[in-house]
Amino acid sequence: RLTSSDRSFGSVALNCPTMSAAAADPVLELTGWKAEPLLLSRLPLYILEGALELSGLCIEVYLAENFLAPRGLYIKLLVLPIIVAGLKLIWCLRLALAYCRVHGRDLRTAIDRMCGIHSRACWSWSAAMLTCMSCVLMVWHAIMFLLMTSCSDSPHRMSHQPPSSAARSDAVKVVLGVSALFVIVNWALWRDFVAHCEESQDDAVDLRLCDAVFQLHKSGTIRMRKYQGVASEPSTSCVVCLQEFDATESVASLPCGHVFHPTCLHKWILQD
After folding, report:
1. CB of 61 within 8 A of CB of 178?
2. β-strands 223-226, 250-253 pairing
3. Cα 175 to Cα 167: distance, rounded to the nearest angstrom
4. Which of 47, 144, 252, 268 could lock onto 262 through a cystine, CB 3.0 to 4.6 A?
5. Whole-model pTM?
6. pLDDT in tens, the chain (272 residues)
């Protein structure tokens, strides 16, 4: 199909919107904020919640070290949630960085910067993974809450000096409050995912087609460059929308020598 004649291109010219009226390029539907808009809208919340949760867990470690007994038991129980919360926060920041690297860039730059983390599969997997992490943390905070409710108020010796009963009681209350808070927060994140998780088979098929076009870019079959760099080509207008090229705009070229507006080429391939 990539070597079809001008007649084939012209047959879809009326169905392809001009560049001035074109919406977002269909290949950019591969990006996570198109494939998983819910995750993108929640990403700042995930980052804020992850930072607060990690801080809360560090506070619990400090209190367990100085005021609670058996100290070793509590610290060991907090190791796993700290690791999970840390990984959750790091991955959310990685997704946000990937978004910022492509968002608002021109099509040529966006395609050059796009990689596996921008795929629908990666963002769908990330949404499920973050929800699973929230479930793990919810269970762990619930365990800490139950342990704190059964914690006696009798003084314990730690570091050769028993903390005051009031200080230990305050530490227990803080751990109870932090644990209860993040049980509720992680439960809310899980319920939000379950309530809004929808999969459209038609959208998935369209995105697979867009992925095929994206692979044509990565393989070099479709090459993007400034029009002035291919000014020696006989065509001075896009053979899909029939508009003249500007001297400095980016165009997409095929091995057969035809030159297009990138969005026009993508939509023609997808429609044909």
Report:
1. no
2. antiparallel
3. 12
4. 252
5. 0.70
6. 444 333 333 333 333 333 333 345 656 655 544 556 678 788 899 999 999 999 999 999 998 888 877 778 888 889 999 999 999 999 999 998 988 888 777 777 777 777 778 777 788 889 889 999 999 999 999 998 988 887 644 444 444 445 567 788 888 889 899 999 999 999 999 998 888 776 544 454 456 666 777 777 777 788 877 776 555 555 677 877 877 777 777 788 888 877 888 878 877 777 76
